[in-house]
Batch of 2 targets.
Target 1
Amino acid sequence: MPYTAEAFQNEFLALGATEVNSIITVTSSGAEGGRRTSGATEIIIVDASGSMQAEGRIQAARQAAKTAVECIDDGVNFAIIAGVSTAQQLFPAPGRLAVSSAETRADAIRSIDRLQASGGTAMGAWLLLAAQLFAQRPGDIAHAILLTDGDNGERAGYLEQVLASIAGKFTCDSRGVGVNWKVSELRKIADALLGTVDIVANPAGLAAAFEQMMTKAMGKTSADVQLKVWTPVNSTVRFVKQVEPEVADLTGKRVDDGPRAGRYPLGSWGAESRDYHVCIDVQPGAAGDEMLAARVSVVEGDTVHAQSLVRAVWTEDTALSTRINRQVAHYTGQAELAETIQAGIEARKSGDDRTATLKFGRAAQLAHASGNKATEELLATVVDIEDAATGTVRLRRKVEAADEMALDTRSTKTVRVGRSQ
Amino acid sequence: MTDCASCADERAAGAAFCEACGRSLAAASAPVAEPCPNCGYPGGVGADGYCERCGMLAGRPRDHLESDCGDIAAAVTDRGRRHHRNEDAMWLAVRGTDVDVVVSDGVSASFDPDVASEAAANTAGAHLGVEPDVSKAILAAKDAVAELVNGGDPRRAASNPACTIVVATVRGTEINIGWVGDSRAYWLPAEGPAEQLTEDDSWATHAIAMGTDPEAAMRDPKAHAITAWLGADAGPSMPRTGAFTVIGPGHLILCSDGLWNYLTDPADFGAVVRERLREGGTLIDAARGLIDFANAAGGADNITVALVPVSNIKE
């Protein structure tokens, strides 16, 4: 059994308390021998709109796509989509998938040289074509990489409509090159398709970014892992969030499974470990009562890989009920950190410097206290941190757009509780 | 032939598992068919002990345990009304008129104190069966409790499982007792106040011995802080012991602080126990009556009591 699920919580509640929190650490050692249990399909979507001609982006995108193709393992199905005002399949023939081999990869790399930048940006259409190609291989580990450099040119609401129809069909990591794209747009894609979003400010960094994404994708051995949460009658799941390696709210993705259980998609898995924060509202018990607030299982289809129990024990002993669980406190702080940064960026954009200063100050404090050095450094590009411990910051007069976008996209990245803490 | 409790298939006597459904016959899996004691859900309780509908724990075996040895001895342990689990444990063994009895109380501030008290009671009790030496039995229990940090939940290492213990052997009219912590032994003669045979290893006892006013000492928030215990961090202290010969009929009583907290005065303690012995009829009823007394008084802690009548009249 390669999966484990471990719950971290303070199960003791004061009388009358109804909120039960637990951090569930799910760890997989990967499939046996690191082999996939099902096939895999990779689709690379490269923005080929006219703006990609600027700053040598299209040349860098070509090089990045080639690097990604070279990382595809033998036997994996793959395709390349050229993103313009419509979705055009660059490789192989339209409507087909190629099986990776030295020969097909060489063919693909030759076809990438034909990629020309001209036309518009239509992410909804690109993703829809990808979904159609993935549909040929149900059960595969399905993963896409999407690269863009600008705003979506489709009518308002179309991208959301497409995302709603293809959610759960594949995972998609999105990258924005340059600074003329919208973080909120790519974040929508990442949220719906359980992927990541990041900025590659300098086109020269694209090849490394693609290589890293594709290498990680090749390490996935399970296609569709889910968290099943059973709760007792008269209890409700307030939220289920992934909190490590980055914050992602899964609450709205619940699919009911029987009268008192629901499944939350976790996407594809390799040898890795992620943390989830589960919050349940229960009916209060009497002193000494013990309730199972949730039974949390890691499932794949009908197979239960691992299970862990979230308990609630009511006590009059305040020494027990006021104990703070370090994991729960830490990740509550990390989630607040991400929200605070995004609120700060919003305030700064709307010219509300006072709110922005307050938010960034609080964020600096949270990042510092939790040892999230990467986020603290990103914050320092937007504000001067005078005293992180007290959250004293000053807004910088001039902020590079790329720095602010990096802070925005990476604000959801979290760190684990230091083992030595 | 007997029926399997799970699937009603007949099986030969002596079989350990049902041949039809494969379930262990010893465990009988009976709770699965039981409705939930909390909400009455007929689907019953899951394999992990929680109701599949309301989620409440269906019951813990240690919440209330009794040991009824007729006229020779009786012991009862109970969760009380305020604690979420019973961290007291007991051992009662009777061979003819020989009695071995152990009461242990887990230290709530430690991790897995219920495991500590159970290990202490079982180890000391088993040791007495081999060698009736209360001091050695307590030292064996001490080793067993100290050993707990090396297994189970890793949090045990940070907060060592710990417990108190009081041990007694009755051989004819000879009574030997030994203890660590604040679980007590009393001698209750046919008449007069109860005599406390143990001296608590507690802050209050220590303070009183050093000259503090007893009432003030007992009111101090530290009064019940114990100064000796069994556990990996207990240090090298030796158990204290006592021995005496019974010269008139009476009862040996072992109990945890869940009972004596409500009866700190030996005269009150004697009066309440005597009342339960008179009205209870059987020894086990008297022990149950003392549990009820503590629960009626608030049941703020786990309660354990053992009653052993001892007489100097040869049968």
Target 2
Amino acid sequence: MDEHAHPSVMTFVAVWITLLFFTGLTVFAATLELGPFNAIVALGIATIKALLVVLFFMELHYSTALTKVIAIAAIFFFMLLAGLTLSDYLTRGWSTYPSTH
Amino acid sequence: METATAPVEPKTNYLNADYGIKSWLLTTDHKRIALLYLISITVFFFVGGFFAMLIRLELLTPAGDLVLADTYNKLFTMHGIVMIFLFLIPSVPAVLGNFLVPMMVGAKDLAFPKLNLASWYIFITGASLIFYAILTGGVDTGWTFYTPFATTFSNTNVVTAAIGVFIVGFSSIFTGLNIIVTVHRMRAPGMTWRRLPLFIWSNYAASVIMVLGTPVLAITLVLVALERLFHLGIFDARLGGDPLLFQHLFWFYSHPAVYIMILPGMGVVSEVIPCFSRKRIFGYNFVAISSIAIAVLGFLVWAHHMFVAGISTYAALIFSILSFFVAIPSAVKVFNWTATLYKGSITLETPMLYAFAFIGLFTMGGLTGLFLASVGIDLHVTDTYFIVAHFHYIMVGGMTTAYLGGLHFWWPKITGKMYPESFSKLSAVLVFVGFNLTFFPQFLLGYLGMPRRYHAYPPEFQVLNVLSTAGASILAVGFLMPMIYFAWSLQYGKDAGPNPFRAAGLEWMTSSPPPTFNFDETPVVTWEAYNYDQIDAPNEGVKVAG
Amino acid sequence: MPDSETVSNNLKHHFANLEQQTATSKFGMWLFLATEVMFFGGMFVSYLVYRLSYYNAWVAGSQTMEITLGATNTAVLICSSLTMVMAVHFAKLGKRKLTAIFLIATLVLGMTFLGIKGVEYYKHWVHHEVPGPNFHFEHEGNFDPRHVSIFFTLYFAMTGMHALHMVIGVGLLSWLLILNALERFSAEYNSPVEIVGLYWHFVDVIWIYLFPLLYLISHRHTG
């Protein structure tokens, strides 16, 4: 079913080179003074790399809708965990009692 | 539909297909594994119940005269750990779900039979560790393992117990994974999503929680164990850590875990009610979707366990509002069950009695949950017996009654034998009466301000506590009776035939007990779930065996 | 063993055909990986919470990381993902020799990663950066050494869990090599290779996030 479309060896090699390029790029970006953007750039590059691995090496791009749903659900529930936990930590400082910040 | 015809002569079934201890311990048959789970969790249930009895006996008198304060701490901790992790979480999914999910979708087995067997061994390994911790001195942290008490101050076997719970968690992950994959991939031809029994929907929803929630508990317990062993400081305020982070991570699993416990129970009720009112369930789509909604919303409300712990007021408001939302799908279910009864031909057989008990008790538990979701009331009754009563209404009044109801409903299918009807009705009534007598007084005690987790209390609370203990002894009889007559029925029960209740569903279309591969030939489904109108129509009894 | 035999030997009784079986086991692995996201997720959230609270300590802790080793390890893992994907590719074509070669390459790269990680751990141990009684961190600047200890706790928990997954992966690869040598796989039946591949790539993805979070994003920016 999901086997009909299948990435070629060339795709794999291209993805591999891109991944190595982004690894170099992220190390280089870390030497620059970008303030808060250091974190954003580093995580942005990491996300691009992760997407490349997931979409092509793990063949999510060629997989069934169901598999895609699982991948998205995993990210979604992780976001819930992170987001709602932070909803506590980030708003603690709003109150008058001493906060951890 | 040809599969509906059952042969008259005794045939090979999953119970007599093979004999000997090896054929059980190495089986990959989901039905045998379900029985392995059934036996294990029944033992654990009575161990947990034993701790509960000691707690209730201690609370018979205001003075702490039966056990020491430390012993009492261990008793309620071990009661909680055993009941939650070793009984409630596996109860319906691993026993009834294991047995029924493949049959209900028309499959020969779960998707990963070896993983299923492995999950039982993992379960037993974890349970053994927990029992090792209990026998070598017990644990006194409460089932919640709150830090920094669990990591720094407790002198008991926290690490052993935590690792035990960690391991048991993986058995639950594997069961959930198996159920989800089976529902997606193993359905018989014609078994579309909207033809699935609601038991499948609710076990599916519970499995989603098991799969996505349990790993968070697992890693949290690893961190607790590491912190306790090496004093790393991650949850220790003295070292800059935040104990509230532990609570966030812990409740991210442990609140949805409540829905792992209750959702499969709702599935049982959704099967029983249509059968004994001879009607299609009212609002199938709503009941099905509400299961999924409960599973998802259940992940959004965990911090209502932390209102007094020092979380931000604004977060508390968010979690309070979100907690109210869970009431909507829960109420949808209750209203739909009630609407199903309307103009039905209701017969009060034992499973139906349990289902009725479930609806009433779950509604009470759910509504008092709304009290607790509002921050103002929660501040007043947190850590009192009001909480204890509330969650026992859900877990015992809801889940355990549903589990017993389901066990009665499918007992003829599992064993091929009928249980004695009068005794079982009596036990259902005893459970209902005993339960209310045990836990209703605890609402009052909590509202009056009696804190939980103390072995002594002021004398003015004694009357209500005596009532509660009296109720607990009635409840114990109600729980022991099924043990006895179920065992009795194995030998002396009437033969059940394939479908003693004339119920709808693929599991009833094969012989009782079912053959090893469930169906003689793969069924083809051409009808909607709960087609009681067709089953009861005079000339169309073809869709039901017997 | 002829290819058709690998099919009949490996088709389990409860599946209609091999396609259903392969799709089912792939689906199972994806679902398992979702549980892994949540498993690591607990640690990622802890990291996030403490980084927001103790930024300066995070910067101080991050300075001790050797970016060269971390970057090398990232490259090693990315290469191992390529070799893994090639192994799957050739397994699907039924080419056992090439499958074996690429599985061995993946295995070697995986061991290399663990070796380099071991060197890093050793250095942290020597520098008293392992949390516990032996922990000692120079107090220079606007941070609390106890908070650096939390950084290192999370560093060891996250990379340690990741390394444990790598060790399991190495075990799985060895198992695949044995099955491959026993000629259990064919162009029709090769789902174990594919499934271990999914697992291996996932472990790579975790590292792709661990590398910037632990080595890079707080580096050289003493606030």
